[in-house]
Amino acid sequence: MLLSRAQLLRGVVAGAALPSLAYADGVSGFRSDLDAAAARPWTAPPAPGAGPLRFAVIGDNTGVAKPGVFDQAMRQVGWLRPDFILSVGDLIEGYTEDRDEIARQWAAIDASIAKAGVPFVFTPGNHDIDNAETLDAWRQRRGAGYYSFVYKGALFLILNSEDTPKPMSAKAAADFYDRVRQMQLDPVKAERDVEARLAAGQPSAYGQEVVDLGDRQLGFVRETLARHPHPRWTFVVAHRPAWKMQSPSFARVQALLAGRPYTAFAGHTHYFTHELFDGHDYINMAGTGGVRHRDGAGTMDHVLMVSLTPTGPIYANARLTGLMDVTGETGQVRAY
Description:
Distance between the termini: 16 Å
Shape: globular
Strand order of the largest sheet: 1-5-6-7-8-10-9
Number of helices: 7
CATH class: Alpha Beta
Helix content: 25-40%
């Protein structure tokens, strides 16, 4: 497995040893406060065990997915046998009111996920939840939009940056699906068109986006952190990198996290960055199938392996184009 360059890889976090692997009930397994009868935002709970916590983080498959990349990525990540795969969102193209099409898109994602052979944990992205129809589909299939769980002594706090879905205009959605169809039918030409748009210097709107976490979600964050004051580590996940955007509500989350060791993950930009804020890792994943939004060192299709050691997480970043099986093959054709 390839490691990232030094500036893209943070190793052991300095500090005292973390609390014991066991938590309140003495079980080194998986716990969630979600209603047992509700739809679950994971395919299966990770298996209990005394081994170290080791999970994989993947980036966006959409918008505008390159054919076959995500499907093969699930096989590749399966070779690594993590405890589970954590998605930062944007698995389907979405932005349609056609419920049959939404169901078809989720069925295709589910079929790919099954090829990994390990549990998969979902985070909603703006392509997954963008209007009433996709919100209904998420609730039926995944249940909660934000939630938490504890596994092997670590707290995972999954946020919903799409607290209020933001539909596209009819024209924008039509233009978007023209590009989706072009990528499916003629990916070579679609990539040339992407290059042309990048060469034209089309500005990104990401810096002008606003992430607004509602009062109910903020209350959930406050209550969850109060219930789990001393986990071994806290992992905070949201689709949009709110720390790069206008988000007074995320600043409130950061204030609630003060005093505990934590890592934040996000996606959305299709460009990998790693930043440190007050000694905490803030990791913006690039893609795991999604078309590039800019050129540079952070443009890649990749998986990030996270291992929680007694002194903190270790991160290993692997491009899908370098993650090979025993025959030396990646199975990837269109990955960056």
